[in-house]
């Protein structure tokens, strides 16, 4: 049972971005040179949602197709990419997201509230501590086929590709992979999720709203 909770924690930590903070290397340098901004950092600094995104049109059901993420715990905990679906219920100022996926043969629904922000196409997920806050940006969507999202937490980027069905056009997949590369998320950390074997309904609910 402990193993299960540990596993659930790892999956949540990565999928919901409560990543443990990486230990910083304490190395003494007498005169540290001004660090040059890397291309990745520049891409993160200039990150913004796509233009004219209307979040309200994203309501309803999505399939999680692809995730690009460097979450070490995820990789080391024997993580399996189980088919995952999301339901976006949208009100005037929040998006309630229900994520349904299997964990240990049980269908779980994890409910979270993303707050709308003044920026169109941008949402906010409040963490327990300020460093756990997540900015969620919709980079691109046609509302009826695909949506490309970025989750930014403490300068760390995770990208997700949602589809209304199990498939999106190849050019969208290519765009997703190209964009992921700009955040230093190469194909080695791009995970495809199966588009079969979805949970019909949730047996257990984890309500984080
Ligand atoms: C979304 O709304 C439907 C219909 O009101 C409800 O059954 C479902 O539980 C809601 N899902 C979430 C994640 O709030």
TrEMBL record:
| Pfam families xref list | Lipocalin (PF00061)
State which residue ranges cross the membrane.
none
Keyword field:
Disulfide bond, Secreted, Signal
One biological-process term from Gene Ontology? complement activation
Q: Which SUPFAM superfamilies match?
A: Lipocalins (SSF50814)
Q: Which CDD domains match?
A: lipocalin_C8gamma
One Gene Ontology cellular component: extracellular region
InterPro entries for the chain: A1-microglobln, C8G, Calycin, Lipocln_cytosolic_FA-bd_dom
Q: Where in the cell is it found?
A: Secreted
The leader peptide range reads 1-23
Q: Show where the Lipocalin/cytosolic fatty-acid binding domain sits.
A: 59-193
Q: What is its main location?
A: secreted
Establish whether keyword Zinc is in the entry.
no
Q: What is this protein called?
A: Complement component 8, gamma polypeptide
């Amino acid at each position: 049972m402990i193993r299960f909770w540990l596993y659930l924690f790892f999956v949540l930590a990565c999928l919901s971005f409560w990543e443990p903070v990486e230990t910083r290397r304490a190395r003494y340098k007498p005169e540290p040179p001004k660090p040059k901004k890397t291309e990745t950092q520049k891409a993160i600094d200039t990150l913004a949602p796509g233009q004219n995104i209307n979040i309200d049109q994203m309501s309803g059901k999505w399939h999680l197709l692809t995730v690009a993420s460097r979450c070490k715990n995820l990789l080391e905990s024997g993580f399996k990419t189980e088919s995952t679906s999301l339901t976006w219920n949208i009100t005037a100022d929040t998006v309630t997201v229900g994520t349904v996926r299997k964990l240990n043969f049980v269908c779980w629904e994890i409910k979270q509230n993303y707050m709308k922000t003044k920026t169109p196409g941008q949402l906010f997920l409040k963490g327990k501590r300020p460093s756990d806050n997540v900015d969620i940006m919709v980079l691109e969507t046609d509302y009826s086929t695909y949506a490309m999202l970025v989750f930014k937490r403490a300068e760390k980027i995770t990208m997700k590709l949602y589809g209304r069905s199990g498939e999106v056009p190849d050019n969208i997949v290519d765009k997703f992979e190209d964009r992921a590369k700009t955040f230093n998320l190469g194909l080695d950390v791009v995970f495809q999720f199966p588009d079969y074997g979805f949970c019909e309904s949730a047996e257990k609910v984890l309500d984080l709203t």
